[in-house]
Amino acid sequence: MLVASENTSSGSRKRWRYRIVPADADQSELSRQNMAATVIAAAKHYAETGGAALVQVILESQVDRRPHAATQLATAEYSPDGKGAGGDTGKVWSVTAGKRGTTTQEREMASMWAEMRGHYQKDGLTDEDALRAAIAKRMEISPGEVKLPRILQEEVPLSPEQLAAVPSTGPAR
Predict the structure, then answer these.
(1) In the chain, where the domains are located
(2) Contacts from 9-13 at CB under 8 Å and sequence distance 24+?
(3) CATH 3.40.470.10: does it fit domain 2-101+149-165?
């Protein structure tokens, strides 16, 4: 599902950034390959329909756009003109993805963190211990179980054949 689009054009080069979220509510079974295929399919679709020289697609864990609420799961930069993000690199694709999606509990914790964080500021910093305790109380879990999801993205090496095999697909509604 498309969450946001942003025109990031500079000079005469048309560039667009799109933020999407998985259509499936259960992300815990998503693999690196699933997420990579999702951002590739979306990047192809947006390049075809928008005619941009550079398309960036970011797959996020949830629609919530407040700081700390959404986690980036995968990204694709697609440069159909072959000039890459810098305009002269010769790179057509750059794809990164994490090893897994987030669980329902992780997304709930992240949303609560974003919602409640402003109430737990001390000397310009977040009192994370107090915030964890408040979230734990609301979720009826121990404070040690309250953690923001950390999904480390790594480059996904893809052959031209693998890239060609992924069909252009627009967002689910």
Answers:
(1) 2-101+149-165, 104-148
(2) 9/52, 13/53, 13/54, 13/83, 13/87
(3) no
Confidence (pTM):
0.88
Q: How far apart are CA 121 and CA 130, in angstroms?
A: 10
Quick: pLDDT tens for 113-135.
999 999 999 999 999 999 999 99
Cβ proximity of 154 and 27 under 8 Å: no
Contact status, residue 148 vs residue 110, Cβ threshold 8 Å: yes
Beta bridge partners of 97: 74, 154
Q: Is the dihedral of CA 128, 133, 136, 137 positive or negative?
A: negative
Token code pair at residue 94: 């750059």
Closest CA to 58 of 37, 77, 82: 77
